[in-house]
């Protein structure tokens, strides 16, 4: 028989305080928020993961690891419900609806943690409304991404936890684990938040371990949703992310093994941790706001564990919670280049808004003001006006850049053309239009990165292609290999950097792609396609950094192609035409400056690159171009000063690292160069630069031994062998020089440097 004891006091929440205060204000603000988001819904597909998510949701397919079934299933149902809309537009609407629901859930969270006063009841939706106006939330509220949907369920989870902590009702305990489990199926990053209730129970009621296990049972059942991608991948007509074959392939898929392998390339665990810290700290503590957000996260941990007794246990809970907040970004793969950081920052922004709300309701005058009916109306009106002022400066987007990109690549290509790409933007744009909109399904689109890692998948998926059984050693070998294998069978085009297909016979630009090994079949200019767009769409392109960068890269490739084929006037004309439309495009300015430096027009280069010198944060290519200009003018000290001034950017780039080390060597600052290389997050890849420093500092033998050891570790790196040949040439060691030239020819038979080395050996023979 259950022992009768004093029942815990049930907390009365403001849900019983009247319809006006409880519901109408929240519904009104959520409706205004929905209207603002609908107003700025994109006109078409965006970049990032949108093409992949939209294609997978429309066809019930398979996204990148680990599948995100908690988003994919409702998104697929939503596209079926709104069948009259294009799938990506339906998903944009889904995010806008989710953002309004997120505002309502945030209101419930704020109310659950506040006293049951009328002022708290009114201020909670106002604080939630202000939180939803943050740029981070606003951007994802109109994007086909998982994050708004994930944040909604995490906020519901926190609300149920607060209600359980204060009321100890079993239904809240069950509900919080269900919400947490749904959030985990949406994005595995949500796993970490399960520490909060588990920590609370273990420290306050250690005898409730059975309740903890029982509460997690629904979560365990919901985790079976991760089997949905396995079923989805069995359908040929769906968008399928490449994955390994067999049981091991699926295990690697769910554990995101390719991301793990990418990180392992950084080196040992210490190097990996250094790289992660170097990426995280500038993001989290890059200034005042970073410190404030971190403080808000710490304060929220204190708030959540306030019911822990005794004090030592509370201290332990706070310590563990703070450690949990601190290490979150470190376990995210490559936070600096990952959208996972947005989940982390939203948690901190929510914490800050939560604490501000709890602080405001403590002020007596504020409470009296909003409790009055006219005060409520005034507060709501002021909040709506402030958010409208912030939102109305956001232009109504007419951006169709991804669709334009797909159209410019696809054009009127012959049937069954093989399209090779190496960037996610073009790949997802084409696959979305193929799989979701059934446009040109005859084209075979291959992402070279994915092909290189998942060759078995592509061999099974495309038996009509003559793919090799083993992938070549380097990714760059694929275009040449595929041209040789498919010659005469199908047309092959390449969308990407022109240097990747340099040397393939018959290569020439057509529109925005490169025709590989075949006759030219059309002559329309990519710039003509771009200029033919309506001005409104062109302005929308220019307002998006990703779209502008892709379009500018195509223009630069066309200019470089003209230059390689002996037409520098056309190269200058193409760059001038683009710069007339985009006078501040730093990378194009840098390219034009480098061409002028090559032609010995240093004064013109100085004038062209003036905007680069005036920029607060010049881009990597711009910093490199200015360094080359200073070197050409013989200003080594100014070159070193310029690079040292932008050292934070220099540390992120291999090219700029080479520039900085060269500047140090020119000035005899060998210790500075070695210290820089020791501290660089990618020190393992910069060993050839260390060899340069050692050689020029008089330690030639140490430099040669270092490079000989390095080339054994990385036999596919041609630059290392070139340095060895150079060092032996400068040392006058003819025997070793010939040895490494022969080794270079054996490893890289098609390298253009072989002709130069053959001429060098011939000269030596004639001299002897």
3D shape: globular
Summed over residues and divided by their number, the pLDDT gives a mean of 76
Q: Please, how many helices? A: 42
Spatial order of the strands forming the largest sheet: 2-1-3-5-4
Q: Using the CA coordinates, give the radius of gyration.
A: 30 Å
SS elements, strand count: 5
Q: What summary fits the major beta sheet?
A: 5 strands, mixed
What would you say this structure looks like, in words?
This protein has 42 helices and five strands. By secondary structure, it is an all-alpha fold. Strands 2-1-3-5-4 form a five-stranded mixed β-sheet, sandwiched between helices. The longest helix has 26 residues. The protein starts with 18 loop residues before the first helix and ends with a helix. Keywords: Membrane, Transmembrane, Transmembrane helix. It comes from Sulfidibacter corallicola. This is DUF2723 domain-containing protein.
List the helices and strands and how they pair.
Layout: H1 19-39, H2 50-59, H3 69-81, H4 87-112, H5 118-132, H6 135-140, H7 147-167, H8 170-186, H9 195-204, H10 209-215, H11 217-222, H12 228-232, H13 246-254, H14 257-264, H15 269-284, H16 288-304, H17 311-331, H18 340-360, H19 364-371, H20 373-391, H21 401-410, E1 418-421, H22 424-435, E2 444-447, H23 448-453, H24 455-461, H25 478-486, E3 492-495, E4 508-510, E5 513-515, H26 526-531, H27 535-543, H28 545-564, H29 568-581, H30 586-598, H31 602-608, H32 610-614, H33 620-632, H34 636-645, H35 647-650, H36 654-667, H37 670-679, H38 687-696, H39 700-713, H40 718-731, H41 734-747, H42 753-767
Parallel strand pairs: 1-2, 1-3
Antiparallel strand pairs: 3-5, 4-5
Helix pairs in contact: 1-4, 1-5, 1-20, 2-3, 2-22, 3-8, 4-5, 4-7, 5-18, 5-19, 5-20, 7-8, 9-17, 16-17, 16-18, 19-20, 21-22, 28-29, 29-30, 30-31, 30-33, 33-34, 33-36, 34-36, 36-37, 36-38, 37-38, 38-39, 39-40, 40-41, 41-42
């Amino acid at each position: 028989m259950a022992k009768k004891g004093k029942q815990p006091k049930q907390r009365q929440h403001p849900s019983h305080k009247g319809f006006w205060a409880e519901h109408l204000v929240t519904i009104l603000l959520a409706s205004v928020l929905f209207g603002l988001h609908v107003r700025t819904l994109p006109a078409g597909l965006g970049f990032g993961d949108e093409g992949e998510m939209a294609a997978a949701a429309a066809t019930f397919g398979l996204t990148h690891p680990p599948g995100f079934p908690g988003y994919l299933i409702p998104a697929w149902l939503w596209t079926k419900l709104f069948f009259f809309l294009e799938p990506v537009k339906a998903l944009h609407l889904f995010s806008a609806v989710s953002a309004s629901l997120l505002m309502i859930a945030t209101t419930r969270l704020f109310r659950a943690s506040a006293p049951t006063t009328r002022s708290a009841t009114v201020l909670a939706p106002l604080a939630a409304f202000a939180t939803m106006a943050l740029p981070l939330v606003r951007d994802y509220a109109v994007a086909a991404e998982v994050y708004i949907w994930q944040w909604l369920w995490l906020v519901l989870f926190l609300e149920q936890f607060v209600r359980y902590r204060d009321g100890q009702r079993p239904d809240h305990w069950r509900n919080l684990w269900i919400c947490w489990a749904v959030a985990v199926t949406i994005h595995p990053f949500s796993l970490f938040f399960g520490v909060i209730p588990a920590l609370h129970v273990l420290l306050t009621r250690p005898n409730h371990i059975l309740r903890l296990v029982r509460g997690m049972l629904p979560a365990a059942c919901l985790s079976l949703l991760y089997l949905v991608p396995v079923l989805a991948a069995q359908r040929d007509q769906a968008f399928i992310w490449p994955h390994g074959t067999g049981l091991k392939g699926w295990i690697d898929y769910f554990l995101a093994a390719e991301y793990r392998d990418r990180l392992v390339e950084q080196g040992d665990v210490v190097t990996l941790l250094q790289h992660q810290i170097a990426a995280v700290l500038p993001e989290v503590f890059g200034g005042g706001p970073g410190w404030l957000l971190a403080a808000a996260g710490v304060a929220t941990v204190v708030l959540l564990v306030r019911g822990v007794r005794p004090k030592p246990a509370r201290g332990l809970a706070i310590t563990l919670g703070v450690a949990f907040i601190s290490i979150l970004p470190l376990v995210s793969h490559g936070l600096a280049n990952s959208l996972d950081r947005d989940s982390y920052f939203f948690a901190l922004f929510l914490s800050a808004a939560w604490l501000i709300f709890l602080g405001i309701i403590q002020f007596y005058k504020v409470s009296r003001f909003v409790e009055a009916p006219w005060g409520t109306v005034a507060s709501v009106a002021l909040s709506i006006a402030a958010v409208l002022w912030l939102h109305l400066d956001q232009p109504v987007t007419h951006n169709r850049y991804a669709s334009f990109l797909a159209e410019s690549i696809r054009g009127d290509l012959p049937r069954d053309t093989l399209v090779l790409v190496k960037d996610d933007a073009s790949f997802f744009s084409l696959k979305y239009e193929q799989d979701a909109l059934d446009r040109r399904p005859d084209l075979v689109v291959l992402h070279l990165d994915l092909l290189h890692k998942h060759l078995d998948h592509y061999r099974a998926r495309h038996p009509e292609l003559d793919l090799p059984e083993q992938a070549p050693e380097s990714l760059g070998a694929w275009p040449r290999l595929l041209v040789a294998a498919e010659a005469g069978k199908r047309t092959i085009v390449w969308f990407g950097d022109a240097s990747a297909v340099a040397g393939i016979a018959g290569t020439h630009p057509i529109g925005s792609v490169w025709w590989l090994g075949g006759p030219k079949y059309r002559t329309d200019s990519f710039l003509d396609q771009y200029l033919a767009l309506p001005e409104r769409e062109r302005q929308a392109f220019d307002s998006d950094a990703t779209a502008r960068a892709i379009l500018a890269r195509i223009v630069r490739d066309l200019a470089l192609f003209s230059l390689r084929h002996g037409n520098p006037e056309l190269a200058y004309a193409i760059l001038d035409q683009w710069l007339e439309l985009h006078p501040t495009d730093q990378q194009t300015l840098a390219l034009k400056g480098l061409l002028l430096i090559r032609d010995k027009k240093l004064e013109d280069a100085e004038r062209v690159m003036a905007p680069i010198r005036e920029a607060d944060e010049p881009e990597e290519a711009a910093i490199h171009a200015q360094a080359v200009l200073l070197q050409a003018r013989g200003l080594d000290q100014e070159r070193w000063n310029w690079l040292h001034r932008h050292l934070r950017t220099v540390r992120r780039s291999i090219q700029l690292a080479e520039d900085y080390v060269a500047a140090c060597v020119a000035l005899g600052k060998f210790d500075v160069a070695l210290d820089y290389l020791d501290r660089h997050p990618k020190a393992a890849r910069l060993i050839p630069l260390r060899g340069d420093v050692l050689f020029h500092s008089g330690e030639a033998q140490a430099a040669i031994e270092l490079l000989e050891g390095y080339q054994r570790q990385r036999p596919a790196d041609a630059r290392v062998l070139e340095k060895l040949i150079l060092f032996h040439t400068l040392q006058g060691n003819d025997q070793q020089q010939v040895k490494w030239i022969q080794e270079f020819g054996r490893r890289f038979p098609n390298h253009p440097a072989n002709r130069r080395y053959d001429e060098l050996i011939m000269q030596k023979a004639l001299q002897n």
